[in-house]
Amino acid sequence: MDDTQGRTPPVQIPAPVEGFVSREAVLDLLDRTWRRRVDRPPIVVLSGIGGVGKTTVAVRWLSDRRDRFPGGLLYARLSEPGGDPVPISEILFGFLVAIGVPADTIPPQSGQRSAVFRAAVEGRFVGILLDDAVSAGQVRALLPATASAMVVVTSRRQLGGLAMDGAELLDLAPLTPDASRRLLGEAAGPERVAAEPDAAGTIVEICGGLPLALGIIGARLRARPLRSLAREASAYARHLGAGSAAPDDVREVQAVFDTSYAALPDGAARVYRACGLHPGPDVSLDALADVLGEPSAHVEDAVDTLVSANLLADAANDRVAQHDLLRRDARLRAERELESADQAAVVRGFTRWYLARAQAADDLIHPQRPRLGVTPPGRHRKAFPDRAAAVAWWRRDLRSIHAVVTEADRRHWDEELWQFCEASWGFFLHHRDYEPWVAMHTAGVAAAQRCGVPLVEARLRSQLGFAYAKLRRFDEAVTQNSIALRLGEQQAHGPTRATALSQLGRAARGQGDFFAALGYYRRAAQLQEDLGIPRGVALCRRRCGEVLAKLGHDEEAITELTAAAKAMAELGDPIQHVRAATAAARLRSRQGRHDEARLVLVDALRVVRDLDSPYYTAEVLAVLGQVELEAGHGDDGRRHRAEARELYARLGDPRDGEIAEPAAAPDDPGAAAGKRDDRGPGSGS
Asked: Which pLDDT value is given to residue 317?
């Protein structure tokens, strides 16, 4: 009994649901907020996308702590099923009647009712759940003035304005995959989940961590004890795209998105659909403005509306991200509301935006090589202030770039596809993401063939052959570069022929045929000299020097490497200057000139680190480590080689397994110095 009223206190909140997992942090926040109350009512606002479990958490906390609120637990839903706000006066009337105020004494005006409500709950320990709030102003009119009343608000919107009222704001995240699997087990039976782990994983992925969706699938499975999880996963995925034709229980999930979407202004709805059509995991505001043809300010306003409605989430670097279920919902809405041509125009717009950025980045990362693809427009050409920003963009957007390329391949947008392959060269040289890069180039070669551009096809084949050689797939490297050489000869294009010859030399070298490799490199060097391409000549001289070192012709090798390093310095190519200087330093160390070699390598390491080039950093570290060992600096040598192995392993490069620990003891410089490195300088280049 409530001792101030002499009547049973009201308990209006819904009954707690059975399945409840992994919300301990939220419950702790609610507990801390209640304990910290001083002179104002403690308020917690739980926001998040529909179906994420905001009301479930609030009800669970209030139910489990009912003894803290002898004055009762009040509940009101603040929005209609269609999303419109419930009148404040109506909610207040219900609260006042529930706590014992005679109906005929309740004033008609909303403001007066607020005053009566504050007076009626003063000093009472009551818990108040304001569910599905529409705005901060709506909530503010329902707040008591006493510190003995705890207010929990749920909303699909971010009610940041309530922070001025002392509210704790928490955006409730979807469940993790592990927590989702546990919740599914509670709903459907843990033995069924354990019996079909792969199908359970599919269901978890489809539901995207939303307890509402997981609970619905669990209930469907509980009602169908003989149905397999695999069959349910397939059926549920099909129903999600069925719109109004979906079963009622599946429509319950869709309804929470329908309500949020219906409240959007046209501009925000357009951005929402475009995000659903974006192939990658997040999208930049600049890309949205470019693709939609809208001023940046308009797009930013629309994004703010969507973030406030929890239909988008802010991401770093002026990007926004969508929860997987929201992305699917946005895509399905775009497919229902837009013509096929309009959908394709949005996706192609994203594809061309990423392509232009990739080309602009490549111009800064690898400016020495002319491109066969079209030059990006001026606005994109100035997209990055410097090389570091271009590299950072590639790293940050790599998943989106791969997704866009996959989409271009699926839609047979061949021009864009082969140009992506060409523009990826500079970043690949430094970062070596082999597997997706090989897949992209395999598709790119086919695209170039369909476009009828043999010189492009040859370039992509040589790039693909380069990757195959690095992966020790030498026969495939020879195949690709032999075709590239034939195409260059058919087109009478000297640079293509020279590149293919040089890459054939790389494959021959990898196969251990050093004399054949030297022949290819010298033919390529002569051709580059005849064409007046000094950088090509310098590249071939470096490669000749490395092969001569393999053959034991150290002095001749040093001559070639020194000339290559000098030429690259004059041409302003720091990476190739470092590579030639590194190979020469390795030979000087083999001759016992350890200090001289070490000075060169320490400077080379600084250059490649400054250029943020993990691959070439590993290359220099491997040589520096060997030189340190030969000089008797065992600890430094092992440390450098360990870092090189780690970088190669991270890049998926086979050389991580080729850098072995030295057999000699750390304090035995003579043994280390006397051991010749049979692989020679720069062996992986």
From this structure: 87
| Nearest-angstrom CA–CA distance, 60 and 46 | 13
What is the model's pLDDT at position 442? 97
- CA–CA distance, 600 with 627 (Å, rounded to integer): 11
Q: Angle at CA 99, nearest 5°, toward 96 and 100?
A: 85
The helix (run of H) or strand (run of E) holding residue 655 is none
Amino acid at 151: V
Q: Which one, of 416, 238, 240, 265, lies nearest residue 344 by Cα?
A: 416
Least trusted range by pLDDT, from 236-245, 447-456, 661-670: 661-670
Answer whether 391's CB lies under 8 Å from 427's CB: yes
Place of tokens 């070596």: 432
pLDDT(330) > 60: yes
**Strand 149-155 vs strand 43-47: parallel, antiparallel, or unpaired?**
parallel
Q: Structure tokens of 115?
A: 């005053």
Q: Would you state the structure tokens that stand for residue 186, as one six-digit string?
A: 């509670």
| Tokens 């490297």 belong to residue | 477
Residues 6+ apart with CB under 8 A from 257: 50, 325, 326, 329
Q: How many other β-carbons are positioned within 10 Å of the β-carbon of residue 492?
A: 8
Q: What is the pLDDT of residues 98-129, one digit of tens each?
A: 999 999 999 999 999 999 999 999 999 999 99
Return d(Cα 417, Cα 434) in angstroms, integer.
17
Residue pLDDT, tens place only, 597-614? 999 999 999 999 999 999
Query: Terminus-to-terminus CA distance in the chain, angstroms?
Result: 83
Give residues with Cβ within 8 angstroms of 556, minimum separation 6: 545, 548
In which element (H, E) is residue 321 found?
strand 319-321
Structure-token pair, residue 530: 């005849």
Tell me the H-state helices in 471-573.
474-490, 494-510, 514-531, 534-550, 554-571
Task: Decide: 673 and 631 in contact? Cβ < 8 Å.
Answer: yes
Query: Phi and psi of 286, rounded to 5°?
Result: -65, -40
Q: What DSSP character marks residue 11?
A: B
Contact by Cβ (8 Å): 544, 521: yes
Sign of CA dihedral 211, 214, 220, 226: negative
* Cβ atoms within 10 Å, residue 388: 14
> 168 has which bridge partners?
44
CB 587 within 8 A of CB 549: yes
The number of angstroms, rounded, from the C-alpha of 167 to the middle of its chain's C-alpha atoms is 32
The whole-angstrom separation of Cα 620 and Cα 586 is 10
Using one digit for the tens of pLDDT, what is the confidence trace for 537-572?
A: 999 999 999 999 999 999 999 999 999 999 999 999
Q: Alpha helices of 141-265 — where are they, by DSSP H?
A: 177-188, 190-195, 197-207, 211-223, 229-240, 248-262
Secondary structure (3-state) at 149 = strand
